[in-house]
Write a structure and sequence with these properties.
mainly alpha, 5 helices, elongated
């Protein structure tokens, strides 16, 4: 939490080192979250969990299993792309702060 507070304070006061500290924390969280998402959505077999929940007698079990695996992979891709894009936004803001912004050049 202190890193996040420092990053928010840095964004409020336009201090690049504090925002970059938050960026490093964000990249670490993206990596850790990606590992956990891969474990939950890809490594663990969704078909085994479907059997534990209970379903209709074996009619369409292979089709349902295939659809669930595909949706898990799609969800993984969407979540990872979204988090990387958010990190890119923060990185872009850090670069703008480091260069001094463009407001003075435009005006």
């Amino acid at each position: 939490i202190p890193l996040l507070i420092a990053a928010l304070w840095g964004a409020h006061t336009n201090r690049e080192p504090f925002v970059r500290l938050g960026l490093y924390y964000l990249w670490m969280r993206v990596g850790i979250d990606t590992l956990f998402l891969v474990d939950i959505l890809v490594v663990r077999d969704v078909c085994e969990r479907m059997d534990a929940v209970g379903k209709a007698p074996q009619s369409g079990a292979a089709f349902t299993c295939g659809i669930m695996r595909s949706l898990n992979c799609l969800a993984l891709a969407a979540l990872v792309v979204a988090t990387i894009y958010f990190a890119y936004i923060v990185w872009s803001y850090c670069e703008e702060l480091q260069e001094g912004g463009a407001a003075a050049k435009i005006a």
